[in-house]
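Researcher: We are triaging several targets before committing to wet-lab work. For this one, the compound of interest is flavin mononucleotide. I'm pasting the protein sequence and the ligand SMILES. What I need is the predicted three-dimensional arrangement of the protein with the ligand bound, expressed as structure tokens, so it can go straight into our comparison scripts without reformatting.
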Amino acid sequence: MKNKTQPTSKELVMQETDIIVSKTDTKGRLTYGNEKFIEFSGFAEADLLGQQHNIVRHPDMPRGIFKFLWDNISQGKELFAYVKNMSKDGSFYWVMANVTPDYDASGKIVGYFSVRRAVSRSAIQTIDNLYRQMLEAEKQAGARDACDASLNLLTQILQEKGMTYEQFILSV
Ligand SMILES: Cc1cc2nc3c(=O)[nH]c(=O)nc-3n(C[C@H](O)[C@H](O)[C@H](O)COP(=O)(O)O)c2cc1C
């Protein structure tokens, strides 16, 4: 189920002590959300569990970021990412997510975890600006080539900075 709500300009701000946690199965369906996750999402727990995690997707997020996320975690690599999410009523909230695979005893990936913390105002400004450029590149490229276009742009920007993705993310 996708959140079809129109986004609004109302922001929900995470406190520094807030931690938003969710877990999914291997297909990205929600299997758990902590109280903060439920609070920020605006949905009832029963409306979240079993749904695709894109239920909190904000249309301002470049698709390339999610492709990058899935490419990494499905290969067993953790990933840090700034994400703008949308609540049920259209409000938005920024998070810094650390997404990690969850393994069973035999070493098989059985799902994923995301632990999210608050983002500083200056980091939001930097990332919002980056994502706007990525989104624009996606619009110009069209749906089929959108992810390639925005990820190429991201690679180019990182090269100019002389930083890896993770160095950049942890530096903003
Ligand atoms: C553990 C985990 C946490 C995720 N958290 C979010 C999130 O907070 N917001 C979001 O939009 N997508 C999140 N995703 C990515 C979604 O599964 C999905 O790829 C994304 O919302 C794009 O969906 P779409 O391609 O259907 O538009 C998460 C995925 C995993 C595995």
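Researcher: Any quick observations?
Model: The pocket of flavin mononucleotide is lined by residues 22, 24, 28, 53-54, 56-57, 61, 66, 83, 85, 99, 112-114 (CB under 6 Å).
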